[in-house]
Amino acid sequence: MRRSYLFLPGNQPTMLQNGAVLPADVLIFDLEDSVVASEKDAARELVASALRSIDYGGRRLTVRINDLEKPYVKKDLKAVVAAGAHSIMVPKVTGAHTIHHIAVMLDLIEEEYGFKKGRTRIIALIETALGIEKAFEAATSSSRVEALALGGEDLCADLGCPRTKEGMELLYSRSRLLIAARAAGVDAIDTPFTDARDENGCYADTVYARSLGFDGKLSISPHHLRSIHRAFTPTEDAVAFALEVIESMKRAKCDGRGAVSLRGKMIDLPVLRQAERTLELARASGMIVTETGEKPS
Amino acid sequence: MKMNSNQMKNARAGTLESGDVLVRIEPADSLEIKLHSPVINQFGEAILRSVRDVLDLFGVTSGTITLEDQGALDCTIRARLTTAIRRSLEGEEGVSP
Q1: Model's pTM, two decimal places?
Q2: Hey, which residues 26-85 in chain B have their CB within 8 Å of chain A?
């Protein structure tokens, strides 16, 4: 379960070190926006060195490389793939061609280092109007793509609209990206909340994203992680209901039925899938430790 | 990648921020390593071992290498020194002022 994706500035050693103790599900080592042009080489070397040396526990390790328009992409990919990055966040994806370029380079690098082909996955960062239009095409263009992520700030700049805390200007883009991700069978990751000091605002924004169906949220600040995880934590009632649903459906299956009634509601496969997702979130949040709902001691 | 003294030019990498190390390389006829660190008594030998490892990797046998350590991890020291050597040798992108 990947609820929180935390950006770490690639040229700041202390932040890369802190990543090992921050509770993010996914760490994104950033070589793009947070690194000035004159320090791209230093950041690349530092991130690769950190990936090789620091124990980040079970966290998923992603690197946001520079965009294809810049001359750094090959060097970025080679350094971080060789150092063991699990996935690459590709910025400014505007369709299948962006993903193809990266996938071909990854094929060559994985072959050179003797890695299993396809080992390195891709998160496509969608941050332009064209990117939104081509989101499904990008998501289905390579089996390496594991998620679509929304970059709201750049998108608003491209759309020519102000970015607000309420985020109504992004409703269509969020919905469109989510449907593209679901149709392609990949995760959907929401845009970061940009006020680092406003934890309540981040919580409300994440609750909203979750209500739309997003699987996780990007974060530009460690202060937001608690809010994001809280927003992705189901209520005790929801967990209890999910456990009842699963138990009822198990009995129904034994009885040869596809649907049952529970608390006056019809329970069938779509409800079962929702219940399974609730339990996944409950496990990720530490509310339960087993499928049967056992609580942590 | 191997380097000799006539290929080298002044280069630097890193910062003086906490957790970082500023590395400077200047051409010289012989090899001299100058280390300044608040933890030199505890970790000076370990830092110097890492520095020599990286210098060996690149075949650096001359030059004045100055490290102003601000409590950097070993991986940071290796990364900054590697960047400084590459800048010194190749004049890559991002040569610091």
Answers
A1: 0.91
A2: 72-76, 78-80, 82-83
